[in-house]
Amino acid sequence: MKKLFLLITVALFSWAVIGQSKNKSYAVYGVGFYNLENLFDTCHDVGHNDYEYLPDGTNKWTGLKYTNKLKNMSRVLAELGTDVLKGIGCAVIGVSEVENAKCLTDLCNQEPLKARDFQFVHIEGPDQRGVDCALLYNPKLFQVRDVKLVPYIYILPEDSMRATRGFLTVSGTLAGEHVTIIVNHLPSRGATSFYREEGGRQIRLVKDSLMKDDPNVKLFIMGDMNDDPQDRSMAEALGAKRKMKDVEDDGLWNPFWDTLASGTGTLQYDGKWNLFDQIILSRNLIEPDNMKPNEVKPSKIDCTSLKYLKHQIFRRDYLFQKEGRYKGNTLRTHAGGAWLNGYSDHLPTVVYVVKEMP
After folding, report:
1. Residue 258: helix, strand or coil by DSSP?
2. Contact between residue 131 and residue 96 where contact means Cβ atoms under 8 Å apart
């Protein structure tokens, strides 16, 4: 019986599968997402309601707190993806709840990210609080082609004066292929489901436009959706399917649907897990026949182009409260008016994709 030995060759960013008669190498890439939970600097941005994140604001947001926040966020971002790609981490990471380009510059200058020369893509959006989405990337692994911020359109007349986060759409090259990443932060649950469903419909239109422009483009739709995978905004409006086999040629697959069904998520409310932080894949990134999530083996699928390998919620002990009433919950920056010097109310997520090396 033929035996296969799996070897991760970090220096080549690859997995090498060695058989008896011939060798094959597989390059693996991490694509992540993280809600940074209010990464604000300490200065007022004109036109934005950022007053609680000023030194004299509600949160007494001083330089010390900002510096610690940057340090904590950079630690998580640098470690994201290293469960598979040790010492390398993700090629790209979408982020939400970041105030401006200064915060992103300061973040990328933190030693763990600076050591990998992380860069960022950001377009200032219209959100009333001033929080935006952005994309961090390792330029050795991902090259940016084009960037657009597609606005979220409020369609009801009573919402005509409102504004919120748009859809950051970044086209680039990963593993020699055309890849586009759409980073989202849909309206919060302070709004009704209608507004997130409308967000799902609008993302679907962006997706359709991108596929019309290039039918071969490979799409990663990620973000804090403020809904779970089975909710109408994701399952119906966006149309992201639970099972690979149900995905149509121009459709989408949500690997995190079954993850939530298994009892784990990315944030908790009233002791119950939700999974708002999703990374959704286009049909051309998956092999739907006889494959289960996280059980895909490179040797069993056609990896001549990028294909889904596995996904995970990133968990570390330091991301959770260790004691007290909320033991086991995510360790936040603030809670109950107290500064906890924590991380975020969300956990990060990551998808790994694989490609056979020539």
Report:
1. helix
2. yes
